[in-house]
Design a protein that fits this description.
The chain is α/β, with parallel strands linked by helices and 366 residues long. The chain has helices at 2-17, 19-24, 28-40, 45-71, 76-96, 105-140, 143-159, 166-176, 194-201, 333-336, 346-365; strands at residues 179-186, 208-209, 212-216, 227-233, 237-261, 267-299, 309-326. Strands 1, 2, 3, 4, 5, 6 and 7 form a 7-stranded mixed sheet that branches. Strand 2 (208-209) and strand 3 (212-216) form a beta hairpin. The chain is elongated. The two termini are 65 Å apart.
Length: 366
């Protein structure tokens, strides 16, 4: 069975590698590749050259139909697809040029000229779109149109960068499309935490995203800012709960031995058993830190998309203390070997909450 499969695979590989067989079966791409490979190795030049030309002619004819369909569309995205297909055809010809005796030179020149013309057309269209959107952005004071204009100018530049004003307008649209946030923190009830809050949120200073620049605690006028954002911290609330309980334990244990005379008059040694008692006082502490923060937004233009929001986060620290009384021999090891942990300090709990709040607030704003 394995021998049959091996023979079949060899036959399949031979047919795929045979340019003439591929051409006869209408597998023009394979015929193109295998005949070109054979020519590069100097095998049967005339025969393989003829196959290469026939296969390439078929490939071009098929791709030309699809390219022209995209090219003749009014949709700019379709015209962009036609350029890619045009370049693909040029690539097929370019690879085979040494073996074509100039037979596709005219086709190649036409494709290059058509690519150039389409590039110029698309560049002109996107440049025109960009200028219109830039004017609309100025007229309506809407930075979204400036942002759209910027991307139109970039597209225009990608197709043809020869337009004189292209770089200037691209930069102008980038500047006009920039949305400015001014962020300020306010924590009137947490004077001791001011430094920590500032240290955390000052990371936002200079933050830049797509058409976004952030200033932190800068005295900018409302005319310079699209969004004025105040992050207002309420008082850090610390709540401590204590719960006390007691566990009692009793157990009979051997405390020694004594000698007694049994009923037969013999002296025997017996264990002395004593019931002992012990207890554990369990003090459980639960410390909860809660912090409420509000994001208050003043929108100075239609370009501010941030909305008011409120956040509340809490973190909990627990601890327990065991006080042993009575005979410790009856008290389980889980109480005797337990080391109580201190409750988390207020400042440390505030730092934990601040990190959580920072993540949620920045996710909301950006």
């Amino acid at each position: 069975m394995y021998k049959t499969i091996f023979v079949f695979l060899l036959l399949f590989i031979f047919q795929c590698a045979n340019p003439e067989k591929s051409l006869e079966k209408g597998n023009f791409q394979q015929a193109y590749k295998s005949s070109l490979a054979a020519l590069k190795k100097g095998k049967s030049y005339d025969e393989n050259q003829n196959i290469l030309i026939q296969a390439l002619d078929e490939i071009i004819a098929k791709k030309m139909v699809e390219k022209d369909r995209w090219q003749n569309s009014e949709d700019l995205n379709s015209k962009e697809k036609s350029i890619k297909l045009n370049q693909n055809i040029q690539k097929n010809i370019a690879k085979a040029i040494p073996y074509l005796d100039g037979k596709f030179d005219e086709t190649l020149e036409k494709l290059k000229m058509e690519e150039q013309q389409t590039n110029s057309f698309l560049a002109s269209e996107y440049f025109s779109f960009g200028k219109k959107k830039l004017e609309k952005a100025k007229k309506e004071q809407d930075k979204r149109f400036a942002q759209d204009a910027y991307y139109d100018f970039l597209k225009a530049k990608g197709f043809d960068s020869s337009e004189t004003d292209l770089n200037t307008l691209t930069q102008r649209s980038l500047e006009l499309g920039l949305v400015v946030y001014s962020i300020h923190t306010d924590a009137p009830f947490n004077i001791m935490l001011h430094w920590e809050i500032d240290k955390t949120f000052e990371n936002l200073e200079g933050y830049q995203g797509d058409f976004l620049k952030v200033f932190y605690d800068d005295n900018l006028s409302s005319e310079e800012v699209d969004c004025q954002i105040t992050i207002r911290f309420r008082s850090l609330d610390i709540d401590l709960d204590e719960n006390k309980s007691e566990e009692d334990f009793k157990k009979e244990i051997v405390t020694g031995s004594t000698t007694i005379t049994n009923s037969d008059g013999e002296e025997v040694e017996v264990d002395v058993i004593e019931e002992v008692e012990g207890s554990v006082i369990i003090q459980q502490f639960k410390k909860t830190a809660t912090w409420d923060v509000s994001v208050e937004v003043i929108s100075n233009s239609k370009n501010c998309s941030v909305r008011n929001a409120s956040f509340e986060e809490e973190t909990i620290s627990t601890s327990q203390i065991f006080t042993l009384n009575g005979d410790e021999r009856v008290i389980p090891n889980e109480y005797k070997n337990s080391n109580s942990e201190e409750l988390t300090k207020d400042d440390d709990m505030a730092e934990i909450l601040l990190e959580i709040l920072y993540g949620k607030i920045t996710s909301h704003i950006f």
